Amino acid sequence: MSASSHSTSRSTLPLPTKRPINPCFSSGPCAKRPGWSVSALSEALVGRSHRSALARSRLNEVITRSRHILGIPEGWRVGIVPASDTGAVEMALWSMIGERPVDVLAFESFSAQWAHDIIDQIKPHKARVFKADYGFLPDLSAVDWAHDVVLTWNGTTSGVCFPGRESIPAQHEGLVICDATSAAFAMDLPWERLDVVTWSWQKALGGEAAHGMIALSPRAVRRLETYQPPRGLPKIFRMTSKNTLIEGLFKGDTINTPSLLCVEDALDSLKWAESVGGLEGLKARSQANLAAVTAWVAQTDWVEFLAARVEERSSTAICLRIVAPWFEALDHAEQTTTLKKMVVLLEQESVAFDIASYRDAPVGLRIWGGATVEASDIEALLPWL
Question: In this predicted model, what pLDDT tens digit does every residue of 79-93 receive, in sequence order?
């Protein structure tokens, strides 16, 4: 059956009567917290220097509230850095990679980008890339944990996440550098088994973009202070001065000028997170979103999860593939065109914005299920699909 004849055969179905209250299901920037309005920014320190005592206290408050909600261990440094999660990851890679061999896990778009940057740009003496197709994790048994290991905890473009802390050995000689941008504030992270963790405000917090955060274990700090990378580092990547950690960076002294509007928004999100029960409340809300999609997929014959294994299915970046025989018979360009038509119709109905799969991923749907999304909105969306 052609795409056009299929579309015609469905056009006589009655439209659902219920719409999501908030149709924002983008995987970044993500939906604002329920009840958000621009009035949440009314106390923002616009026009003030980010180096003023009051602004520095607000920046430090973002750090301390984030540390508390995420359960980051004592002794770890937490800082606000430029260029969102991408900037935070690149800071770690360019500053730390090269002392040991490195193993990189690449199983979706962004983890593949880190592999590219390490192999083709940083060019350490010895590096290995462990790849997996979309929907799967690489073979973790092949990883040498005496090497530095670079991984993405949750594949934002594949909907595949690490199944739990046991995925990483408790004892490892190398550093574990973890991109956690769509996992932080929605999933448990095994801090005692990680060394560098990065995230942004624009994912699970629903914050505004352009600011990243980086958390460093004492082992990571030691690496920074003892290892001199054989390459120049631009200013926005430098976390040390004269082989000593720049402590101010982890107390609210940012490398470059942050947006104090974004800072105020991040604080609003963090206070909301505390009001719904902290990390446990955030996880429960995200799991409820995944449960709603799971129940719908079980009753729907034309769609499946992209993540093959139940225990590896993300509760935030919920990725689905279309398995209707008529759709699978189309070539890639036809599938893309058909999906685009579907997405446009959903937007025209104000039912769902920005739910097409990522451009590098298999053609399908991607529904953000982080804690700022209400399960009732996902339940209202699904009949429209």
Answer: 999 999 999 999 999
332, 324 contact by CB (below 8 A): no
Q: Three-state DSSP class for 270?
A: helix
Residue 180 · residue 198 · CB < 8 Å: yes
The Cα-based distances of 123 to 42, 115, 151, 319 in angstroms read 47, 10, 17, 32
Residues 194 and 327 in one domain: no
Same domain, 315 and 256: no
User: Do residue 248 and residue 234 come from a single domain?
Assistant: yes
Return the SS3 of 134. Answer: coil
End-of-domain residue from the set 213, 244, 273:
273
For strand 176-179 and strand 148-152, is the pairing parallel, antiparallel, or unpaired? Answer: parallel
Determine the residue type at 374.
E
Question: For the segment 234-249, what is each residue's pLDDT rounded down to a tens digit?
Answer: 999 999 999 999 999 9
Q: The whole model's pTM is what?
A: 0.95
**CA gap 309, 185 in Å, rounded:** 22
